[in-house]
Amino acid sequence: MTKILGISGSLRKASFNTGLLKAAQSVTPDDITFETATLHGIPLYDGDVEAESGVPPAAEDLKRKVMAADGVILFTPEYNNSIPGVFKNAIDWLSRPPADIRKVFGGRPFALAGASPGNFGTILSQNAWLPVMRTLGADLWSGKRFMLPKAEPLFEQGRLTDEQASERLRGFVRAFADYAAAAKAR
Fold first, then answer.
1. pLDDT digits (tens, 9 = 90+) for 44-68
2. Domain span including residue 8
3. What pTM was computed for the model?
């Protein structure tokens, strides 16, 4: 069974991206395990904190979840045409210590998805992730990206209610899981 981990890059309770993450989990086919992770509790990266007490427990927990997954989907908001600081901060912690980068990211399939109230569905944020993922040695799946523009009317109380968007999301998760399974078999 292929194991996918989804991470929402938003801390907001009513986040479109957390809603999209939950929707992805709910439409995942039965032959795929889809787990979710949160960024809550991960402090701002501080090299002095790392030197004194190591990687914080919340970041270590997320790191373990990433390493246990066959593939990871980053559900990324777009803030000021780029990556949300809280999400980039979490990835920075996951890359510590540097000796762990290969274990966490090296060759692991990652995919990008996002929902936004604007017209472009997080394309600029997703583009900003490209050099970060390349630097870390992740296998960034280029088969598809999932972008959901003008998201506000597609959600009710944090739940994705648009059937067409749900079907597109199901296909996205299936295709990425197939890619992650093939990568695992190599």
1. 999 999 999 999 999 999 999 999 9
2. 2-185
3. 0.97
